[in-house]
């Protein structure tokens, strides 16, 4: 009796349903990020019941989400795994799906900022359906570390930034801007303890934000991700949900950042 060939053995080890699920995922890309059941069935040339069952399974596993209209879209774990595999991917590219999700979920504006000697630099922003127009905070804007949530999250987690930034002559932008070093140190200790920064009218009146640091190798601050909007929408259950979402996004991006080449910033 002939011994089984390598292809025969591989064939027995392959799970057909997993292969089909992978084929379905291959249809999602930047040009077509959302699919209806009917369209995905047509494009994949699979049985409609099979497509429905496979997509339902992937939703249960957390790999696929349903939109409010009932269509399918890729969930965050897929982006996280893909980003981690591409170690040369810059943090801005890795953060885009997270920024988009935050903006869509809350209708506010999501920001990605990176540290620089002169302040926190906004390198990307995604606007939601009802964003507050925040004058002066756009891509390329440089913000002070002692005001707004994203910059303060980086300040709290970077001794290097604190050593350069904490002085006795910090400017006040509103009557809520913390400028005294002792006051700032107390607030930064709280931010480190809870893992996120919360700001309310400390840079622009009526504007609140939640931000968390993105940490790379050895805990080095790589960036921050935040969401900002009208102060009255950052209260109660709405605030708690925004905190949870920002923290989860920052944690996922930190795992991605650990795989990126080391930056020039040090703790």
TrEMBL record:
Gene3D superfamilies named in the record: 3.30.450.40, Winged helix-like DNA-binding domain superfamily/Winged helix DNA-binding domain
Domain IclR-ED: 77-259
Residues forming coiled coils: none
Domain annotation HTH iclR-type: ranges: 15-76
InterPro entries per record: GAF-like_dom_sf, HTH_MetabolicPath_Reg, Tscrpt_reg_IclR_C, Tscrpt_reg_IclR_N, WH-like_DNA-bd_sf, WH_DNA-bd_sf
Keyword annotations: DNA-binding, Transcription, Transcription regulation
Name recorded for this polypeptide: IclR family transcriptional regulator
């Amino acid at each position: 009796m002939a011994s089984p060939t390598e292809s025969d053995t591989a064939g027995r080890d392959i799970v057909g349903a997993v292969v089909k699920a992978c084929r379905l995922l291959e249809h999602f890309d930047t040009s077509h990020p959302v699919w209806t059941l009917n369209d995905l069935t047509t494009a994949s040339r699979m049985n409609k019941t099979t497509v429905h069952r496979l997509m339902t399974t992937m939703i249960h596993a957390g790999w696929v989400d349903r939109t409010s209209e009932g269509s399918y879209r890729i969930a965050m774990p897929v982006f996280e795994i893909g980003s981690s595999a591409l170690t040369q991917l810059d943090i801005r590219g890795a953060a885009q799906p997270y920024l988009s999700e935050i903006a869509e979920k809350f209708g506010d504006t999501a920001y990605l900022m990176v540290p620089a000697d002169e302040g926190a630099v906004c390198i990307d922003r995604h606007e939601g359906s009802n964003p507050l127009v925040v004058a002066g905070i756009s891509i390329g804007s440089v913000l002070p570390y002692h005001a707004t949530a994203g910059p303060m999250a980086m300040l709290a987690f970077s001794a290097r930034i604190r050593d350069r930034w904490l002085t006795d002559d910090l400017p006040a932008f509103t009557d809520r801007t913390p400028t005294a070093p002792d006051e700032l140190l107390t607030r930064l200790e709280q931010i480190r303890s809870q893992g996120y920064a919360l700001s309310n009218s400390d840079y622009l009146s009526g504007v609140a934000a939640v931000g968390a640091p993105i940490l790379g190798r050895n805990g080095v601050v790589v960036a921050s991700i935040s969401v900002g909007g009208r102060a009255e929408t950052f209260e109660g259950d709405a605030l708690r949900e925004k905190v949870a979402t920002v923290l989860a996004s920052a944690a996922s991006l930190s795992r991605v950042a650990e795989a990126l080449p080391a930056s020039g910033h040090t703790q």
